[in-house]
Design goal:
The complex is a heterotrimer of chains A (about 100), B (about 80) and C (about 600).
Chain A lengths: L1 H47 L10 H8 L3 H10 L7 H8 L3
Helix pairs in contact in A: 1-4
Chain B lengths: L2 H31 L10 H21 L4 H11 L5
Chain C lengths: L2 H29 L8 H4 L11 H12 L3 H9 L5 H28 L5 H9 L1 H32 L1 H23 L4 H21 L6 H17 L6 H25 L27 H4 L5 H4 L11 H14 L5 H27 L3 H8 L3 H7 L15 H21 L4 H38 L8 H7 L2 H16 L2 E6 L4 E6 H31 L5 H28 L5 H32 L1
Antiparallel strand pairs in C: 1-2
Helix pairs in contact in C: 1-5, 1-15, 1-23, 3-14, 3-15, 4-15, 4-18, 5-14, 5-15, 5-22, 6-7, 6-22, 7-8, 7-10, 7-19, 7-21, 7-22, 7-24, 8-9, 8-11, 8-19, 10-19, 10-21, 11-15, 11-18, 11-19, 14-22, 15-18, 17-19, 18-19, 19-21, 22-23, 22-24, 23-24
The chains are: A mainly alpha (about 100), B mainly alpha (about 80), C mainly alpha (about 600).
């Protein structure tokens, strides 16, 4: 009984250490992810602009690209309500202050 | 030469200069005199070292450009077209 | 009082607080967290922003984001009150205010679908709250830039070996990034190469100091901050942060091991010196009337000193960022939010308060342990006859000297007392370098964030004057404004002759700017905590004595910080040099005016909800 709980505690502790280790590595990747997201949003805004009345590229081009960009449009739509609320994302992704 | 090309060459030059400065300071001055600069003063050696340091941050960025090779490979694989 | 006793007390109090207060009251009674309620990570799952993550990984993320140089400088300054009062504030301020603030910010964000605490404050307190938030964030970031540039410059002057190591560290991190991203070498191999080079660089740096004046370092670090904030993220920031992670691990591991190995020693520092301290502790120039006047009462001045060790407004933003979008279950938030902050308090106690309390009186420690402390200190320029206690050193120096002594004592038990001096210089340089590394990462991060907050703040200008808006929010302008103000505030180093000590002491800019930064940071925390309290009261509709559990700390914090900042403006600011009266003084005055607006918004929101 005692051994079992000791084993469980030790296992949790090692999961804990492993988790922190992974987090420390991921932490540095998060900053990259941020820039990737920025670039992606900029690209999508450029390509899908005509749909919201911003003439960035010929409208026919946008309509043609709509089908292959279906996943990206869904993600853009889920990000839209957050709007300019990116300060928190920035702060937690850049890490360390 | 395109603007991109000029920027790359400038970047390469800056990197080389920076590496030379740092190599001189660290491997020669530091190793043989035991310190770089002197306490409480701003000497040529320490200024040179820090300038070399700052240049080393800027040079490779200009030279090697913006796209990391892994992302370039990923895009080339996905689209089948070679990127410049 | 033995090191071991403090260790056990800190551990015990935090474990009890986590179990009974965190889980029993916060989780179960206030927020009523339930594993059945889907978090945004599941509800809005999209594989990119909203992805459920393992709770230990999230804990590590949150802890790495909040750990830095803040919990080091603050408690080091506060040691002037003896070690008991700072320890009590770090323990109980953390348990009842700081960690609660972190936890509630995450939970409020989770319940609001993953939006940040800034938007939540806009929801519960009105649109003005968003601008107060942005103003606080920008001011806090500028002041943190000023304080940290000054700290790093002061470290490089007193420990020039750390300067050499920092100059070597950046190219190594750069090389690592280039190896992984441009040549495709595996991360493992690149890490190995980088770590080996780092060890070699450390050995080289120990024998080769790099000397420059304080002012020169301020300018160079400002230029560095500006450049680093402009470079692409994959190039420098990311590899550097990755290597820094190993540094953080090593730092914490050594702190824990050091405390365990020195467990049997008695602390040489007094538990309690006085409840009052001279104004110099909260930023006045020593030797002036304001500097000597005993105005810095522990309460309310403590938020101006110990900031991030016990409570920090930045954490609320960090927690309501990616953390809330990746939380897998509501029950995980306790470990991630409450737990990570308690861990930071524990690190602060172990790595800062404990070593300084142990190494307080150099001569008594030497007598008690037989270690050649005086000669080790004289080798780094500290004359034990002139500075008999660690309080005679500036704050940052207290930290790495104390850390160095504790580690040297710990490891000389195994390696022999003959190695004490080498161990001392090695670990002192290591601690100084670690502190400067944390500071340097914050420099360019703070610059990037300040740039963003500045642009966000001016969105009201766009419909009025498009050209002015374009110019002001241009990324180079915004970046330059931030770092320039920070550098100017960090530039002065003031040499004061103190007749009581019969010598000159150097007052670095960070001693003057730190209270302003800490105060603004705590006001930001007060804003976040008041938002959470209003959310708990108005949206969760928690009434009765449970709601007091949140309301009381929120109001206590607001009253304490407001009183502290008024004290600072009235007693300290008038005596400061013109640069700081204009710079830090105006910023603090603005935060105080906004502060009154904040409490008005809070009270209004409260009445509307009742």
């Amino acid at each position: 009984m005692v051994f079992k709980s000791l084993y469980l505690i030790l296992r949790e502790f090692f999961n804990f250490i492993r988790g922190i280790d992974q987090a420390l590595i991921e932490e540095s990747v998060s900053a990259l992810q941020l820039e990737y997201v920025e670039l992606e949003v900029a690209f999508l805004t450029l390509v899908l602009g005509p749909l919201v009345g911003v003439k960035t590229v010929p409208t026919l081009l946008t309509l043609e690209l709509l089908e292959p960009l279906r996943d990206e449009v869904r993600i853009l739509a889920s990000r839209a309500p957050r709007g300019r609320d990116v300060l928190a994302d920035l702060m937690s992704s850049l890490g360390g202050t | 030469m395109s603007t991109r090309g000029v920027v790359e060459v400038i970047g390469l030059l800056i990197t080389v200069v920076a590496l030379l400065i740092l190599a001189f300071e660290i491997l020669y001055v530091g190793l043989f005199t035991g310190s770089i600069g002197s306490k409480g003063e701003v000497t040529m050696h320490s200024i040179l070292t820090t300038i070399g340091w700052l240049l080393l941050l800027v040079g490779p960025a200009l030279w090697l450009g913006g796209v990391p090779v892994n992302i370039k490979k990923m895009v080339e694989a996905r689209t089948g077209r070679k990127l410049s | 009082m033995y090191v071991l006793v403090i260790l056990l007390i800190v551990l015990a109090i935090y474990v009890i607080a986590y179990t009974y207060y965190g889980r029993g009251i916060l989780e179960r009674r206030v927020v009523k967290a339930s594993p059945d309620r889907l978090t945004p990570a599941w509800e809005k799952f999209d594989g990119i922003d909203y992805v459920p993550a393992n709770k230990y990984v999230l804990y590590g993320h949150h802890f790495a984001s909040i750990a830095g140089a803040g919990p080091i400088i603050g408690p080091a300054i506060a040691m002037v009150y003896g070690w008991a009062l700072p320890l009590i504030w770090v323990l109980f301020g953390n348990i009842f205010i700081g960690a609660v603030h972190d936890y509630l910010s995450i939970m409020a964000s989770v319940r609001h679908g993953g939006i940040s605490i800034m938007s939540i404050s806009e929801n519960v307190m009105g649109r003005k709250a968003k601008y107060i938030f942005l103003a606080y964030v920008w001011i806090a970031l500028i002041l943190v830039l000023a304080a940290f540039i000054s700290v790093a410059a002061s470290i490089f002057v007193t420990v020039p070996q750390a300067a050499t190591l920092s100059v070597l560290f950046m190219p190594i991190a750069l090389l690592f990034g280039l190896l992984v991203y441009r040549t495709g070498i595996s991360v493992r191999m690149a890490t190995l190469i980088a770590l080996i080079l780092l060890v070699l660089a450390f050995i080289y740096a120990l024998r080769t100091p790099l000397h420059l004046t304080y002012e020169a370092w301020v300018v160079i670090l400002a230029v560095y901050g500006f450049i680093a904030a402009a470079l692409p993220v994959w190039y420098l920031l990311q590899p550097r942060d990755y290597v820094n992670a190993y540094l953080l691990w090593a730092f914490v591991a050594f702190a824990v091991l050091g405390a365990l190995l020195t467990a049997g020693y008695a602390l040489t520092g007094p538990a309690y010196t006085s409840f009052k301290a001279p104004g110099a502790v909260i930023g006045a120039i020593p030797g002036t009337a304001a500097g000597k006047a005993m105005v810095a009462y522990f309460w309310p001045a403590v938020p101006l000193i110990i900031a991030c060790g016990a409570l920090s407004g930045f954490h609320s933003i960090v927690g309501s960022g990616t953390t809330s979008k990746q939380l897998s279950s509501e029950l995980d938030a306790l470990l991630v939010g409450y737990g990570a902050m308690l861990t930071e308090g524990a690190v602060s106690s172990l790595a800062v308060i404990l070593p300084i309390a142990l190494a307080w009186s150099f001569t008594s420690l030497e007598a008690a342990t037989g270690a050649p402390i005086s000669s080790a200190l004289s080798k780094v320029g500290i004359d034990v006859a002139k500075t008999p206690t660690i309080l005679g050193l500036p704050a940052a120096e207290r930290f790495y000297t104390g850390y160095g002594i504790m580690q040297a004592l710990a490891w000389s038990k195994i390696l022999g007392m003959g190695n004490f001096e080498t161990l001392f210089t090695t670990f002192r340089t290591f601690a100084a370098f670690a502190l400067s590394a944390f500071v340097l990462t914050t420099l360019d991060t703070a610059n990037r964030l300040a740039r963003f907050a500045w642009s966000e703040f001016f969105d009201w200008l766009k419909p009025i004057d498009e050209t002015a808006y374009r110019f002001l929010t241009n990324r180079w302008v915004a970046s330059m404004v931030a770092i320039a103000i920070g550098a100017i505030l960090a530039y002065p180093q003031i040499s004061v002759y103190v007749p009581e000590l019969e010598r000159h002491i150097t007052v670095y800019a960070y001693a003057i700017v730190w209270p302003a930064f800490a105060g603004t940071n705590q006001l930001l925390a007060a804003l976040a905590l008041l938002t959470s309290a209003l959310w708990v009261y108005a949206v969760l509709k928690v009434r009765g004595w449970i709601s007091l559990v949140i309301m009381a700390p929120a109001l206590f914090l607001w009253i304490t910080v407001t009183a502290a900042l008024i004290l600072w403006l009235v007693a300290i600011a008038p005596g400061l040099p013109l640069l700081y009266k204009l710079g830090a003084g105006t910023m603090v005055a603005i935060t105080l005016i906004l502060d009154i607006l904040l409490i008005a918004l809070f009270v209004y929101g409260l009445r509307r909800a009742s």
